[in-house]
Design a protein that fits this description.
This protein is of the alpha/beta class. The protein has helices at 8-24, 28-40, 44-63, 91-105, 150-153, 166-181, 199-210, 221-234; strands at residues 4-7, 73-81, 84-87, 130-136, 141-148, 157-161, 189-197, 250-260, 265-272, 278-282. The protein folds into two domains: 4-23 and 67-148, no CATH class; 151-277, no CATH class. 39% of the residues lie in helices and 25% in strands. The mean pLDDT is 97. The structure holds iron/sulfur cluster.
Amino acid sequence: MDFRVIKAEKITETVKELLMDCNYNIGSDITNALEKAKETEKSEVGRQVLCQLIENNKIAHDEQVPLCQDTGMVVLFVQYGDKVVIDGGSFKNAVTEGVRQAYKEGYLRKSVVNDPVFDRINTRDNTPAIIHTEIVPGEKIVITAGGKGFGSENMSAIKMLTPSYGAEGVIDFVLDTVRKAGPNPCPPMVVGVGIGGTFEKAAQLAKKATFRSIETSNPDPRYAEMEQQLLDRINKMGFGPAGLGGTTTALGVNIETYPTHIAGMPVAVNICCHAARHKTAAI
Ligand code: SF4
């Protein structure tokens, strides 16, 4: 069987570039949505905030500086080709080194602590990252990397609904989560919804949903319709840009699904702020 050899340094370099890129250059889907919202936002203050966000993102791009002070905890979704062999180290160590170099050389804030409850000592290089790996056929590694701010992460929620709740139950839970989040997650936000699988799979799907372009829809028209309905209803809540009131509370709602057990219907809502940072590269 033929294998493709990829050097560990190439993975490190790719992760480093993706993380610096996503912290300095917001995706065109977010830029387009902010520009569009600037035209449709009903509140004067809301329009001013949207202009400031657009200007902020432009400065970050022009000067290659982070677009938000919270440069997040690193999350990666990796499609790992089953014909790839890494030369010169393990995949995990190569990724960790990429995170370390990006946050040091890119002057990105180090926001990770070593223990969640007791020690809470800053690891000083933003490691470790959260790595979601899927083994796929092929000889490539495709990495999507992002930095997740916790102002919005802290507003996320999961619920183990039973099937009798149906589509209405899903919609109610998503809206309830966004309503409780209120102005806290730095709106306008991107709402990622994961439905199905198990407890942890739903949460992972919700995160993956926030990493999908908001210019795409779920391929199943029923879920695409649910995405649009949720977006419309969230934008009627009135929190608005920066939570100062207005008609632009969310820029997009993305839903990802997975088959589940006959007795369950897990739903997770991962809220992401307007600094929805993620970039993808194939090696
Ligand atoms: S929630 Fe997002 S925009 Fe707000 S401080 Fe955190 S990273 Fe920045």
